[in-house]
Amino acid sequence: MSAPATKAGSFRHVKYLWRDEEADELSGVDRLVYRSNKLGEDLTLTNTGGGNTSSKLIEMDPLTKESVEVLWVKGSGGDLRTVRRDGFASLYVDKVRAMKTLYSSSPERGPKTPIEDAMYPMYSHCVFNLNPRACSIDTPLHTFVPYKHVDHLHPNAVIAIAASVNQEKLCQEIYGDEVVYVPWQRPGFEIGLKIEQLIKDNSQAKGILLGHHGMSSWSSDDKTCYETALEIIDRAARYIETHDRGDKTFGGPKAQPLAETDRKGIQAEIIPWLRGRLSVYKRFVGTVQDDEKMLRFVNSHDGPRLAELGTSCPDHFLRTKIKPLFVDWDPSSLDVEGLKNSLSEALVKYRKDYDGYYQECKRPDSPAMRDHNPTVVLIPGLGMIAWGKNKSESRVTAEFYNCAIEVMRGAEAIDQYEAMDRQEAFDIERRAHCLRRFGRNVCQRNGAGDYRQVWAGNWRRGNRD
Ligand SMILES: [Zn+2]
């Protein structure tokens, strides 16, 4: 990955949007905003609300008037495409580094230990210039990277590698020693320290591939950081392209596509009926998708098996739930009553499975079960109907299941798709739910309670990262 003056024109699957004449007009945080917007503009680079960027910049301390190093990192909520200056959290780098002492003083460390949860509120003690923007749960992925700029993204092509059974081997094969593999670990202080060590041990590395999560690039130069991110993603997409299975994607077609008039006619009958069945706890709005890509998946041999495995990336399943409802129906029958019967049976089974998932994975202090109805329904011949409490939520659900399908397509082309571990998925879902709803992880009852009060409002604004 040597860096020529510009890499415009050298990518096939991602858009190169950086313009020196625009960027060079800007400085400091404005350049970071520029870079973030350019990354967010290309939907192949990350999902809505997903990913975050950072720069470590020298600022003047408002109190001492001295120069200090400040980590500007995209805050919680919002989207890279539209983020502005006020969407970034700012933290004193030396104070963030001092958090290490606190962390390492705990006898128990690592994911799921009390100290992990106690570290988040500590970031509020590091805030530079009273900036009210809360930092995201991915902040530790930026904190200890010893480079000025970091781009952390959730691209489908990279997650396809990260959701393959042989993800580590594939990472090595595709990137050699330029990208370091980090197995799945939920974002937290521990993974930040792990990344710091990996960079020390692999000084040639320009980025990381995070199992079941995404990737990061880094550089002391912001444009190079941007280009490295693009290169990591483009390389993944090219590798998938060379292994593309063409007509055999998802095992090839099982059901034949319906004529458009039949498809639209049956959708018009089924969707209001289904909406009534699903809106048990709240009224749902549906987004229908029946383009070629979606129909290829719902009509395929492997679609039901892959859907049943569930989604692999936390960002996706927080909206799509651990798995969609895939109904077994032969569209060539045009039998709408038969479809309603099959859907009714499938719904009973889905709810039972969801109840089983809750019972199997719940902890003694888990919050009550969420609505056990599906948010994604897949029907051969008809496509996908994604549900949400309003139009925009149902659209994001649809977008995220599209991401999940792209991830499965890539992973099955190059290897074999692997879903997220069920207990881990449950714990993440529960944790995100707690943080959103209560501003804290209710399962952790001791220590740092006062700080959580301060952070409650911040977390409530959303923590999709
Ligand atoms: Zn992330």
Provide a descriptive summary of the structure in words.
The structure is a single chain. The protein is an alpha+beta fold and 465 residues long. It has 2 domains: 6-242, L-fuculose-1-phosphate Aldolase, CATH 3.40.225; 249-420, 3-Layer(aba) Sandwich (L-fuculose-1-phosphate Aldolase). The chain is built from 17 helices and 11 strands. The chain has a 7-stranded mixed sheet with strand order 3-2-1-4-7-6-5, sandwiched between helices. Helix 8 links the parallel strand 5 and strand 6. The protein is globular and about 75 Å long. It binds zinc ion. Residues 138, 152, 154, 213-214, 465 line the site of zinc ion.
Please compute the radius of gyration using only Cα atoms.
23 Å
CATH homologous group name of the largest domain: Class II aldolase/adducin N-terminal domain
Instruction: Classify the oligomer.
Output: single chain
Structural category is alpha+beta
- CATH topology-level name of the largest domain: L-fuculose-1-phosphate Aldolase
- Poorly predicted parts: 437-465
- Main sheet attributes: strand count, strand direction, barrel closure: 7 strands, mixed
Tally of structural domains? 2
Residue share in helices?
40-55%
What's the total count of β strands?
A: 11
Shape: globular
Q: What is the element string, with H for helices and E for strands? A: HHEEEHHHEHHEHEEHHEHHHEHEEHHH
Major beta sheet, strand line-up: 3-2-1-4-7-6-5
* CATH class annotation of the largest domain: Alpha Beta
Small molecules held by this entry: zinc ion
Output the number of helix runs.
Answer: 17
- First-to-last CA distance: 27 Å
